[in-house]
Specification:
With 359 residues, this protein is α/β, with parallel strands linked by helices. The chain is 44% helix and 19% strand. It has two domains: 2-224, Spore Coat Polysaccharide Biosynthesis Protein SpsA, Chain A; 237-354, no CATH class. It is built from twelve helices and eleven strands.
Length: 359
């Protein structure tokens, strides 16, 4: 891993933009957002783009807006399909893509004008297989941007490692949309059709295949995190058990096949930690009983694996105590969680404000 402080990707003049980048935009019932998102792709400083927009069976005006925009920019191809889900829409786009480089944009988000120029320039400059950028988190009340003036060059499985370790200083994560990929990296790696949380397995395979990855620690993608009907805002639901949890199990198997049992255990630490947090979130809620039973069944069935995972070098010792408390008494674990949320954390925040740590 090489830290490149103050790194600036080389500029690409339009006459030198000979490589075609295929940008795949998925859209479903986002009539209030899609024009802003698609125009942000059309307005890229890297002009040699193929813009493939897959209308995933929208029942609002999204399809009509797309057709109108396509008339104003010959680079836009609109594909109207019956609703098949985000994974299917992205796979449709990949199958149509002619570019040697592929990027993804969710139609309700938008990107900075120079996102693809910078990602492509960095990827080619450093002879990488994947280029990644930071993103801004957009809510109704604020924007969070943790950009740092640097880049990081990862060799071999280094990017995979920091991804599995969920290291906050590197915003690589599952998301497909803050990355630019060499097309050959995606061969034989479709998104799991018909499933939510489709990025988990896809990202793991792509990062495992990459020989080199360049990470730009600047925000170039704008991600809306509080749209009410977003999948990410539906918290625990039936899909947690049919799609989300199975994807994490598949990720474990992928890491084990790579011979990285160390990373498989690290991944499982974060996985079982999430299950514990899910359990605490629905404990005592009116409709949480069925979810509680299923979560407890998984955690008790996987007890030995979970205990091993919580011995990972990245595991917080406090989490080991919480896991042990859960196995002794789930109710006591939830009471402790509530105490921390309602008393301990607010007290720490007040103390830090008094000390001037928080503004």
């Amino acid at each position: 891993m090489e830290i490149l402080d103050g790194y600036r990707p080389p500029k690409w003049k339009e006459e030198d933009q000979t490589e075609l980048i295929s940008v795949i935009v998925a859209a479903y019932n986002i009539e209030s957002y899609i024009e802003r998102g698609l125009r942000s792709v059309c307005n890229q400083t890297y002009r040699n783009l193929e813009i493939i927009v897959v209308d995933d069976g929208s029942t609002d005006a999204t399809g009509q807006i797309l057709d109108k925009l396509a008339k104003s920019d010959a680079r836009i191809q609109v594909i109207h399909e019956e609703n098949g889900g985000l994974a299917h829409a992205r796979n449709t786009g990949i199958a149509k893509a002619k570019g040697n480089y592929i990027g993804f944009v969710d139609g309700d988000d938008w990107i900075d004008p120079d996102m693809y120029e910078k990602l492509f320039a960095a990827l080619t400059d450093k002879q990488a297989d994947i280029a990644v950028c930071r993103y801004r988190q957009i809510t109704r009340t604020r924007t969070v941007d943790g950009s740092v003036d640097r880049a990081v060059l990862f060799e071999g499985q280094e990017a995979l490692t920091v991804y599995v370790e969920e290291r906050e200083e590197f915003v690589i994560q599952n998301a497909a949309w803050n990355k630019l990929y060499r097309k050959e990296l995606l061969a034989g790696n479709p998104f799991p059709d018909g499933r939510w949380y489709e990025d988990i397995v896809f990202a793991t395979k792509a990062l495992a295949r990459a020989g080199r990855c360049i990470y730009l620690d600047i925000a170039l993608y704008n991600y809306i995190i509080d749209r009410e009907d977003s999948i990410m805002n539906r918290r625990i639901n039936s899909r947690t058990f049919t799609d989300h949890i199975p994807a994490y199990y598949e990720k474990t198997k992928l890491l084990q096949k790579l011979g990285r049992e160390d990373l498989a255990l690290t991944h499982d630490y974060f996985f079982y930690k999430r299950l514990l947090l899910f359990y605490g979130a629905v404990f005592g809620t009116e409709d949480g009983g069925g979810y509680l039973m299923r979560l407890e069944e998984i955690l008790r069935r996987d007890r030995e694996r979970a205990k091993s995972a919580f011995q990972s070098p990245v595991a917080d010792p406090r989490d080991r105590k919480k896991l042990a408390l859960f196995y002794r008494s789930p109710a006591a674990y939830c009471r402790k969680l509530r105490w921390e949320e309602q008393v301990v954390v607010p007290c720490k925040v007040r103390v830090k404000k008094l000390l001037g740590i928080y503004k």
